[in-house]
């Protein structure tokens, strides 16, 4: 009998043992150490870095393309600017050459003009069947009373103005260019002294060539 009581005291019934297990408190988690926090921080940084890299990768190609386009556009603008400067220099050079050429032509025209005289008063067709330079040379030799066979040397002679003037009953002036300036001066002096020259019954006025 005493042995049965001892077993009952030490072991207890199954219900008692079960109640003891149910009422036992769970184990508490261990506190985080500095090492744990450092590792967690490094892990979080890696995760964020990976996430940002994954987000940026699709944009990087677009950004590179934009950078390339900007560089290409900048290069094109630079080339266009250089071309514009070159063209501007070429235009300035052409303008300078044009001005120089114009001045030379004007100088030549003024030089040739010093050999010219205009004769006003000849009726249209007064030269009849002769060419105009020959007609003017023979007439001037007669008017100036030059020696027989001596005539002024004329480079060219032509009527000035449109034919419409002739149709309105107005005779056109005759422009004569002489080879020598002294011949021109002699004729001009004689015409000024007489006020006019005569061709048959027509008064011929001698004028300087002041045309532009």
Question: Can you describe this structure in just a few lines?
Answer:
With about 210 residues, the chain is α+β, with helices and mostly antiparallel strands. The protein contains six helices and five strands; from the N terminus they run H-H-H-E-H-E-H-E-H-E-E.
Q: Which features does this protein show?
A:
212 residues, alpha+beta, rod-shaped, 12% strand, five-stranded antiparallel beta sheet
How would you explain this protein's 3D organization?
Strands 2-3-1-5-4 form a five-stranded antiparallel sheet. By secondary structure, the protein is α+β, with helices and mostly antiparallel strands. It contains six helices and five strands.
Average per-residue pLDDT, rounded, comes to 80
How many distinct helices? 6
Overall number of strands: 5
N-to-C SSE string, H for helix and E for strand: HHHEHEHEHEE
Q: What structural class results from the helix and strand content?
A: alpha+beta
